Structure formats: structure tokens, C-alpha cells
């Protein structure tokens, strides 16, 4: 979230700490390859507009990524300034530039090629791919099953992580009026083989993950047990209001952290994350974990949920303790349940942050065929894939990178026809 101390003077001061490295590791660490030393140099010379132009030329979700990127694992990870004192606050500088300058998307479209591309899904991968293809001169139509753009950014990411006005402004700056965007239309795989698919010379599948993993903790008729996606979406849309009592969140990823912090803001007496492994194995970003702990989120380690207790509403959750095993081939450590270690924990709301999977129909398309990792093309077809469909719910910036990569491959494919 934006820091009130991040003023113009702060930005110039922070920018002047940059070493403007040749072959900069920060740029290599950015999946969208923003030229970071160049945008920082522009900021240093007070050209905020130029800095924003440079960021958005490589990443049309530059502002969103400034808020949501795990920068400590990406651009800031190998910053050479850390050898002197501390890494440059690249994500904060990116937010500053994007929030404090106007922007007109540079649109040097080549002459029209007459080729048509369908983009299925208006998340960051789909939108990025569509914008890039339009700039290459192809005609693009986006199909989105929801009534809004930007997928989980609009639907689930809490406002305390990214202000809604930042998302609105970024969407307004995309220039999507140059392409046909059809919202509220679900394109099923079979439709691609029929009338919809036949109209297009190439198709990009950028559908997100929509199927929350099922859990036996969700029992028919027992209220107040939500999957994380539904919980966050309902809070954003206002259909879940203030919370009383104890909220227990099951999971260890960024979404679990988002749910726990959301529950505190809704008034939960206690917000408790239960994870089946230890802190060392928890996949959530360090910054989010620290912030959640500061806000009062509690953590229970090495607990596996067994069942919820309660007739009409959940009242308790039964856990069993786990024991961690040695990791195999450097992966995360497996765990086993400890016998005779069951106990109950009070819970007025249970949120299951267990991850999401692909739609079964799209899974079958991908399972049957090979996706070329370099081109993102489903081999020997006119279909290309990217975003959550192939990287199982990674970051926004990786989805943007996939969208760019797929657009270049699609352009090459269309030009070879
Ligand atoms: Fe600046 Fe750090 Fe990038 Fe070097 S690695 S150019 S110091 S931000």
C-alpha cells in the first residue's frame, strides 16, 4: 500500500541511490523486463511522465504490479545497492511514477493485417496479449465470462492491498477501446471448434483458475464455511459484512494472508491461520506474512484440519497435529499426521484458502496436447495459452509476461500463414 512518506523528494532521493548498473540484475529479475535503471534515471531527473511511459511500455499493468509484485523475490532480489546498504525500493518507485503522472498509451499500430485473433479471458495475460496484437495490426476480440476486466485483481484482491482507484485508472489507461471486448460471455472449448473458433486465425487462451479445490470441510447445510475466493469476492461486493468471533483460515499462501487480514478489518475478534507445515515451508510472501503478524493475525503451525463441528453453523474445527518429513529432491517437506493428536479449536467462520484449479474442460485440452514452453503454442494448432492456465496461479507480472510472449508468437504464426 502507498506510504504517505513516499513524496516527490523521497522518490528523487531514492532514485539517486541507484548505481545505474550495466547489465542490471533488477531488469533481469523482472519477468516483463522493464528497463529499471532507465526509469529510475528519469525519476532522478524529475521526469515522472517519462518514467511512467517507460514502465508501461513494457508492462501495461505497471501500477498494479507496483502494488502486488513480490519484488523482494524478483527485481529487488539481486539489487547491487544491497552490497552497500539496502536494495533500491524499486516497487515503491514504480508505484510512485505510475500514480503521479498522466499517461497516453503510445499506439504505433502497423498497417492492418486482416488477421483476426480471439482472446479468451480478460485477465492480465489476455489483456496484455490483446493490446500487443492490436499494436501489431491484427484485429482482436476479447471474450470474458465475468462482467468486468482484470480477473482476480478486480474480483478478489482486497482494497487494502491495492486501492480501487489505482485499478480503475490502470484499466482506463489500457486503451481497450481500440479492441472489441465482450464481457459476460463464456466461451467453452467446444465452441472454439465450432462457429467462434472458425472466425479466427488464432486463439489465445488466457482463462484463469476458476475451480476452488474441494474440501470435506465444506458440508451441506453448515453455514459460515467459505472458500477463499468466494469469501474475498463477497467481501468486495459487500455481501459479507462485519464479522464477530473467531475466523480460522486454512492454508499458507498469499490468499490465506489476504483472507486473515480482511477478517480483522471486518471486526473478527481473532483471525487465525492454520497451516499444515511450518513457517519455513509457508509459500506466502515474507512481506505479507510480516504485515499480517503486525496487524494481529495469529498463526498455528503443523496442523491439518479433520472436520468442522456444528449442526447449522460451524462452531469448532477439529485438527490433528503433523510431523514434517525429510524433503525429497529439494522440494517442500512432506508431512504425516501424528496419531492420537486430535483436538478442537473454536471457529465462528472458516475460510479455506486451498488454491484453485483449472476448469475441467480446459484441463482436458491441455492434457491431450503439448504446449511449447518457448512459444506458448499448443503444438500444431492455432491455439496459444498463458497466465494461470499454465503457471497455476502465479503472479500478475508473470501473467503479463506470458501475454507478451504469446503475442509475439501469435504474430510470428500469423505472418507465416
Ligand atoms: Fe539500480 Fe539496483 Fe538495478 Fe543496480 S540493480 S540498476 S542499483 S535498482
How would you characterize this protein structure?
The chain has 417 residues and is of the alpha/beta class. The chain has three domains: 92 residues, Alpha-helical ferredoxin (Fumarate Reductase Iron-sulfur Protein, Chain B, domain 2, Orthogonal Bundle); 153 residues, FAD/NAD(P)-binding domain (3-Layer(bba) Sandwich), CATH 3.50.50; 144 residues, FAD/NAD(P)-binding domain (3-Layer(bba) Sandwich), CATH 3.50.50. The chain contains 17 helices and 16 strands. Helix 7 runs parallel beside helix 17. The N and C termini lie far apart (47 Å). 42% of the residues are buried.
Strand order of the largest sheet: 3-2-1-4-16
Distance between the termini: 47 Å
CATH architecture of the largest domain: 3-Layer(bba) Sandwich
**Average of pLDDT:** 89
